[in-house]
Known about the structure:
Blueprint: H1 4-13, H2 44-56, H3 64-70, H4 79-94, E1 98-100, E2 110-116, E3 128-135, E4 138-146, H5 154-178, E5 187-191, H6 194-201, H7 213-224, E6 228-232, H8 249-258, E7 261-263, H9 264-268
Parallel strand pairs: 2-5, 5-6
Antiparallel strand pairs: 1-7, 2-3, 3-4
Amino acid sequence: MCQRKYALDLLQDSGQLASKPCNTPMDPSVTISKESGTQLADPSSYRRLIGRLLYLTNTKPDICYAVTRLSQYMDTPTIVHQQAAYRILRYIKTAPGLGLFFPKESDLNLKGFTDSDWGACHDTRRSTSGFCFFLGSSLISWKSKKQTVVSRSSAEAKYRALAQGTCEAQWLLYLLHDLCIDHPKVVVIYCDNQSAFHIANNPVFHERTKHIEMDCHLVRDKVQSGTLHLLPISTQDQIADILTKPLHLGPFQTLHHKLGMLNIHSSLRGAVS
């Protein structure tokens, strides 16, 4: 499932069809904030571009974080924001036919990955939560969203992301039930933060967890009821990391491959084995 024609039309309408492609949608060495650069004289073109990119994220989770980040500056966009948006277009040009692949034969085991950065927003110091869920080997749900409160520690930021992933897992179970699809196995969620992992499995509240008590109750209730099972994972293998921060080429390509995306137009030319 891809939006190749839509992507090519977007490149042509924005004048980036002849631009030089790049390998990542966002440059991790560039700091982007509300005050970065000179404000655009006419912000309507930037807003229109971001709106069209948001629609493209329906089949391209690899640009979800970059588009979500730039959408936060639609009220007063600057030249720096516009250049960052053009970089996303240059990344799309690398493989406009890239999309989600859903194999005909796959199991129905639901598993998810949750992650967050910590205070990376230079304007508000809020963290960004990210999660993605797979049904078998198929990616069916993902989100990248800035948290509503400022987290005082990385463990708190990770745990709030875990709570959001728990809500998504429960909703997916309800959806499978409505579709008359039985899911007898426990939903597995992978978390790369040991503190958040232990808080979810520890029945004793500590002084450092009072401010996230509601999220503690939510996640622990699903764990104790047998709906969820939490497993630790290394940061290098945390797929949701691609939804929380800009990555360098090496880590980005590694996690991008694990999303299960495929460019069928390249395979028709014999470029993909």
